[in-house]
Hints:
Elements: E1 11-14, H1 24-51, H2 58-87, E2 91-93, H3 94-127, H4 132-135, H5 138-163, E3 173-174, H6 181-187, H7 193-227, H8 231-259, H9 267-292, H10 295-310
Parallel strand pairs: 1-3
Antiparallel strand pairs: 1-2
Helix pairs in contact: 1-2, 1-9, 1-10, 2-3, 2-9, 3-5, 3-7, 3-8, 5-7, 8-9
Amino acid sequence: MKMENQSCASEFILLGLPRWTEKQDLYYALFLSMYLTTVLGNLLIILLIRLDSRLHTPMYFFLSHLALTDVSFSSVTAPKMLFNMQTQSQSISYAGCVSQTHFFLFFADIDSLLLTSMAYDRYVAICHPLHYTTIMSQNKCILLVTVSWVLSCACALPHTLLLIRLSFCGDNVVPHFFCDLSTLLKLSTSDTTANDLAIFTVGTAVITVPFICILVSYGRIGATILKTPSAKGIFKAFSTCGSHLTVVSLYYGSIIGLYFLPSSNTSSEKDVAVAVMYTLVTPMLNPFIYSLRNRDMKGALRNLLSRAIFSPR
């Protein structure tokens, strides 16, 4: 009897981006600059929050973890893609492919749960301002972040364990720039019923439920704003929630565009384009969104630059 956990494939071939061979140097320069911007921008956010005591609040505590997650999330796929483009290689080992799938799911889940924690923080700040300090205590914030990391690990692990049980004895060409789980399942010669069930169950737990919680939080925020329809109150609410709402829209908008909108004949190209959006573009934009629309972050950056320029040498 054949052991199904023995995969026939020793490596996979990543086709990369559609038509990337036509302007490969341009694509390489573009995605390298995007990746470097993502890493440097998010690390700058972490540094500013660490150094400026005025940013030692629950909102920026969650933001620092989101920035770390964005760096890690992009680093799962971008370096391998850039390496393949530079070396003209398209291969990735079986172990590397499984590892890439695991960590991609892991950091994607953390992103979703951290955005939910940030929405809850904004809900408490606007709807229960007098009790904000008590509700959003340091221990509560640490607990929310810890649960996000642990739950994400627990959700990504079943996908990985079910994936390594599958056989890949046929086509090993992945029409993507990374090892996407749904694409790998289409290549498998094994029964993927358990994998599909896990995708539905875990997806509900870490994507659908958090998204509903975010919608409920902002529904309550909107109801609170309408009860006190002053221009000052509305401006404060938008300044408090605007950045987070923008990031949530980018993150879940990409997911909805990928998994819920009808597919066309160019669905493979659409999937790759949307994947670029949430693996590279969104993590790159997050530092700009939070910095350009946030006076505290801009103030912390000015302080850091002034100390660097005028500090005694």
